[in-house]
Design brief:
This protein is an alpha/beta fold. The protein is 39% helix and 17% strand. It has an eight-stranded parallel beta barrel, surrounded by four helices. A two-stranded antiparallel ribbon has the order 3-4. Helix 5 links the parallel strand 5 and strand 6. The protein starts with a helix and ends with a helix.
């Protein structure tokens, strides 16, 4: 199955006025008429026609966006303010952004995200040995705390997005549990990818109950009822999202984003199906 790892490996690792205040600091914005999209889903279309694709995303009805195109101080090749204006002019908001970066790069990355107006800066994946140890995860948790502290000082929230490998057992625990237990909840939040949790055999509801308030952001995509358990449009697979959304308050979820890593139909058609089905699920 194709994952985001190869993409992420190739992604580039001032004071602002009140108008630039990140959305996360304006209070929780969960409303039943707002649905988010992780733009990685339509990455090929964005590469061909950035503005035209964003116009189509807006036409479908999406209002929240999570970017996946940061590099060297720019978003999708545009200056942060230029990309933000393009999005806002279409009636949408950039809530969050995925970016892999080192502590040495953090100042430039944070400044760019402040100018963009995003409230969340999310680590989309982290490299681990083939058989990681507790210490491997603890060291990464220390990195997250350090990056979270830098983001917090600037007015951003730092988060981590899971795949499936974090749920492999390490003695009596998992890497994901180590992350949750070893990170400061005031500095690090989590973006729960419900598909990957299910794929790994974990119960998202248990995590939401055992670690309440830690999951500001969610990724939602469905799972085919097939041996491959491939990605699927919301409402066409086996994940009960109506049941999942009952945990939104306990989890601390403020924003959620449709993400489908790969699509068997045109991605714009896929995100239309997911949007229409989500409107029925969360109403």
């Amino acid at each position: 199955m194709i994952t985001r790892r190869n993409f992420i490996r190739n992604t580039a690792f001032s004071a602002v006025g009140m108008a630039m205040l990140p959305y996360s600091l304006r209070g929780s914005s969960f409303r039943n008429n707002d649905i988010g999209l992780q733009l990685y889903t339509v990455r090929d279309a964005l590469n061909k026609d950035l503005k035209g694709t964003l116009e189509e995303v807006s036409r479908i009805g999406y209002t929240w966006l999570e970017a996946a195109g940061y590099g060297d101080g720019k978003f999708y090749g545009l200056a942060p303010a230029e990309f933000k204006k393009m999005v806002v002019d279409l009636g949408m908001e950039v809530i969050s952004s995925h970016a892999g970066f080192t502590p040495e790069q953090s100042r430039q990355v944070i400044d760019a995200h402040l100018e963009l107006g995003a409230g969340y800066l999310v680590y989309p994946w982290i490299s681990m040995p083939e058989q990681p140890s507790r210490d491997d995860y603890r060291q990464s948790a220390e990195l997250f705390n350090r990056l979270g502290e830098e983001c917090n000082r600037a007015g951003l929230k730092f988060g981590y997005h899971n795949h499936d490998f974090e749920f492999v057992k390490i003695e009596d625990t998992t890497g994901y549990d180590i992350f949750l237990n070893e990170t400061d909840q005031e500095l690090v939040c989590f973006e729960a990818d419900i598909y990957w949790m299910k794929y790994a055999g974990a119960d998202p509801g248990d995590y939401f109950s055992n670690y309440p308030g830690r999951f500001d952001l969610w990724h939602v995509k469905d799972m085919e009822d097939s041996p491959e358990r491939s990605f699927a449009e919301i409402g066409t697979g086996v994940i009960d999202f109506k049941a999942m959304f009952k945990f939104k308050d306990e989890a601390g979820m403020s924003y959620f984003f449709v993400e489908q890593d790969t699509c068997k139909r045109d991605p714009l058609e896929s995100i239309t199906i997911s949007y229409n089905n989500l409107r029925k699920i969360i109403r």
